[in-house]
Amino acid sequence: MAEAYDVAVIGGGPGGYVAAIRAAQLGLKTVVIEREHLGGICLNWGCIPTKALLRTAEVLRLAQHGAEFGIKAEGLSFDLGKIVARSRAVANKLASGVAYLLKKHKVTVIDGTARLKAKGVVAVAGKDGKPLADVEAKHIIIATGARARVLPGLEPDGKLVWTYKEAMVPPSLPKSLLVVGSGAIGIEFASFYNALGVKVTVVEIVDKILPFEDDEISALARKSFEKQGMTIHTGAKVDMLEKGKDSVKATLALKDGKTQIAEFDRVIVAAGIVGNVENIRLEELGIKTDRTHIVVDEFSRTSAAGVYAIGDVAGPPWLAHKASHEGIICVEKIAGRNPHPLNVRNIPGCTYSHPQVASIGITEAMAKKDGREIKVGRFPYQGNGKAIALGEPEGLVKTIFDAKTGELLGAHMVGAEVTELIQGFGVAKTLETTEAELMETVFPHPTLSETMLESVFDAYGRVIHI
Amino acid sequence: MPTPILMPALSPTMEQGKLAKWLKKEGDKVASGDAIAEIETDKATMEVEAVDEGTIGKIMVAEGTEGVAVNTPIALLLGEGEDAAALKSYGAEPPQPAPAKAAQDAEPVKVEKANGAPAAAPQANGHNGHDGGRVFASPLARRIAKDAGLDLAAVKGTGPHGRIVKHDVEEAKAFGAAKPAAAAAPAQTGGALVPQRLAAAIPDDQIIAMYEKGTYELRPLDNMRKTIAMRLTQATQTIPHFRLFVECEIDTLLEARQRINMRSPKDGQPGAFKVSVNDFIVKALGLALQRVPDANATFTERGILLHKASDVGVAVAVEGGLFTPVIRGVEKKSLADISNEVKDLAERARKRRLAPHEYQGGTTAVSNLGMFGVDNFDAVINPPHATILAVGRGEKRAVVKGNQIVVATTMGCTLSCDHRVVDGALGARLLQAFKGYIEEPVTMLA
């Protein structure tokens, strides 16, 4: 006997479970089908556990710089097993929290793998592979997420060549590490391992690290990483990996055309992701895909009526908060509400390295390419009292305004806690404030957030503290 | 925070009114669009509709209270998850009696020439000049509107709670604000929209001076009225119209209609429909355009756009004006689909909830006044359309068939054509094809 629901969500990650809770709030009978673990990659193997690891790196770094703050801490060491265990505990705590939230909202959870069977019908296989009862639902939301992209010649083996998953639970600390790809995931792992004393080399095919960030911010971050001991090759790629017994010999094709052969204990491949579009039987219902992503409209509707796709599987930006928001919009549309489509330019992106990087909107280069007349403001952390007091004088807040309308086109930040600050510009952008309202806003003193105000002032030639 | 429900202005000039009757009581749940109270003015009694959903937390103005000023909170609406405790945080104010204000002088409405936007009254400090209510707009929207000389009161907000956001202002800039009237897209004739005067050749002051003060009421132009005035003045001044008239016999059609509707699933069931004569007309006109594709066209100075699909507008009278939502690809749609789509669009047009893409474009439109007992009339083309079909009522009339006078139900149809793109013979062929489908509806299946 098939169970009938209003909404069936395939995948319990940050897109799927949020969509399910919103659906339940709107009075829809909802089921989530999850094949592995509620919370998805984000909670279990992504955003959250890496933040736990990076917090360790931060604590260690502060302790190492204790003398600077008048703290004597000698003979510092760390226990890798405990570092990883804490990260796992944090992930598990949150994942069980998701189970509780779904239960609280009376969302049914089925442990199993779902496939589209027919219009409005999902076939489910249990964890043992045996078929469970079909699920009938008027609306089916595909939120199956994505996985690491595999590059030919760089196939992960889980031992010497890692993806994010192995990199998160290292059994022992490698002495040297090659990170392929300098997006947020690559840079965060590079930053973590570098902090623990691993000799880290980052190879990026584009000519800058953090390729989606503003050039200036990217360059500043690079300078800081290099100062901390990382080796970074941009405009470069890994030609070949030769696996040895407990190390890998990598042939790097560098920017200047030279080839460099170097040996690394471990390799992390973080060269983008691909959507999990396989084995859902999308073709059966004629659902269009574009490479590895499901094609959707602004309300996450696929080419088949009654089927929706949200989050990573529906295309970039690959961010948990984008997935959650899409889930909410998708469900509100299903429930006959009148939600607003997501404005991609209002989605902030964060990288939790040291220093942190955060941004929203378009970069200076993009604005210029659009042919816009712009005003650009910059304010360095050196001019901020709180940053100096924290001992974090490295950082920059860059703001880009449309010269004609005063629209905040983009904000780009590097420095301590910028991932917590960026939401201020997010609110500003969503509310469509111009420079005038930002300048009228009173920012508390002394805080890092004052750098945001000063950056706005600077864009209009009114900066105070430079 | 509970949301206050404010005393609405039922007309642009209304300053106060009587709260005649509460249709909901405290504790009742309301959905957006539910009637919650009746308001009476000297002119009319109207229902107040809930804008948001929630629960009526507190009624602040008792039934029967007279002289309640516009914008006075009359009740508090509790949102999702809010309980009555939230009411305490809201400083409930007693209703303010409307200030006794001298009757407004019948001052001529100032008409500004606006470039690219319909002429609008000058903006008074961001206040909506029509009902005195605050205009909610984002700072960016305000600035763009100011730079473009746009009146925000003329812009429909699509942001949260109807807030005007950048997108709305930019759209208003591109298409001309308000644009609720029949013709949404700017006329294709002169590139940039030429500033247009709304009124006739005689200056307003002179016109107004011809009537004794106090013998009339001045109703300010709302945006829909302004747009209608501008577009249709433009249409009659720039489009060389000519008209073709035919009488169609519709007995077969009426019978077909009855047989089709008998087969509809029960009302409320999925797939239910009730096809009207007008739906047949829309379908027939769409098919006729496919048969005579040269008439499925739009005139521009850069060339004639020959359209592939038959996109047919349907004029819908709404309070204070009209909309012409467009049914796309009529040739491919079934009568039932057309019928349900027209119904949906008309309903939303009446609530003024159509999205611009739903009433822009198309090459022709159907205007039907048969239900008012009009036998025959002709209509003004809505730019950028090439034609418009005016339809009168179906009536039993005496007709001559083979030297016999017999009774037949006939319906007068007048096609107005834009001579720049549809010449006499072309228009005649279109009308002939249309008449063929109407008189032998079964041929629509071919």
Automatic annotation (TrEMBL), chain A:
InterPro entries: Class-I_Pyr_Nuc-Dis_Oxidored (IPR050151), FAD/NAD-bd_sf (IPR036188), FAD/NAD-binding_dom (IPR023753), FAD/NAD-linked_Rdtase_dimer_sf (IPR016156), Lipoamide_DH (IPR006258), Pyr_nuc-diS_OxRdtase (IPR001100), Pyr_nucl-diS_OxRdtase_dimer (IPR004099), Pyr_OxRdtase_I_AS (IPR012999). It catalyses: N(6)-[(R)-dihydrolipoyl]-L-lysyl-[protein] + NAD(+) = N(6)-[(R)-lipoyl]-L-lysyl-[protein] + NADH + H(+). It is found in: Cytoplasm. Its main location: cytoplasm. The keyword Nucleotidyltransferase does not apply. FAD binds at residues 51, 312. Residues 347-454 form the Pyridine nucleotide-disulphide oxidoreductase dimerisation domain. Binds 1 FAD per subunit. This is Dihydrolipoyl dehydrogenase. The lineage of its organism: Bacteria, Pseudomonadati, Pseudomonadota, Alphaproteobacteria, Hyphomicrobiales.
UniProtKB/TrEMBL annotation, chain B:
Residues 114-127 have a biased composition (Low complexity). It catalyses: N(6)-[(R)-dihydrolipoyl]-L-lysyl-[protein] + acetyl-CoA = N(6)-[(R)-S(8)-acetyldihydrolipoyl]-L-lysyl-[protein] + CoA. GO terms for cellular component: pyruvate dehydrogenase complex. Residues 2-78 form the Lipoyl-binding domain. One of its GO terms (molecular function) is dihydrolipoyllysine-residue acetyltransferase activity. It comes from the Bacteria. Binds 1 lipoyl cofactor covalently. InterPro entries: 2-oxoA_DH_lipoyl-BS, 2-oxoacid_DH_actylTfrase, Biotin_lipoyl, CAT-like_dom_sf, E2/Pdx1, E3-bd_dom_sf, LAT1, PSBD. Residues 89-135 are annotated as: Disordered. Pfam families: 2-oxoacid_dh, Biotin_lipoyl, E3_binding. Its EC number is 2.3.1.12. Residues 136-173 form the Peripheral subunit-binding (PSBD) domain. SUPFAM superfamilies: CoA-dependent acyltransferases (SSF52777), Peripheral subunit-binding domain of 2-oxo acid dehydrogenase complex (SSF47005), Single hybrid motif (SSF51230). Its cofactor is (R)-lipoate. GO terms for biological process: pyruvate decarboxylation to acetyl-CoA. Signal peptide: none annotated. The keyword Acyltransferase applies. Keywords: Acyltransferase, Lipoyl, Pyruvate, Transferase. Forms a 24-polypeptide structural core with octahedral symmetry. The pyruvate dehydrogenase complex catalyzes the overall conversion of pyruvate to acetyl-CoA and CO(2). It contains multiple copies of three enzymatic components: pyruvate dehydrogenase (E1), dihydrolipoamide acetyltransferase (E2) and lipoamide dehydrogenase (E3). PANTHER family: DIHYDROLIPOAMIDE ACETYL/SUCCINYL-TRANSFERASE-RELATED, DIHYDROLIPOYLLYSINE-RESIDUE ACETYLTRANSFERASE COMPONENT OF PYRUVATE DEHYDROGENASE COMPLEX, MITOCHONDRIAL-RELATED. This is Acetyltransferase component of pyruvate dehydrogenase complex. It comes from Rhodomicrobium udaipurense. The lineage of its organism: Bacteria, Pseudomonadati, Pseudomonadota, Alphaproteobacteria, Hyphomicrobiales.
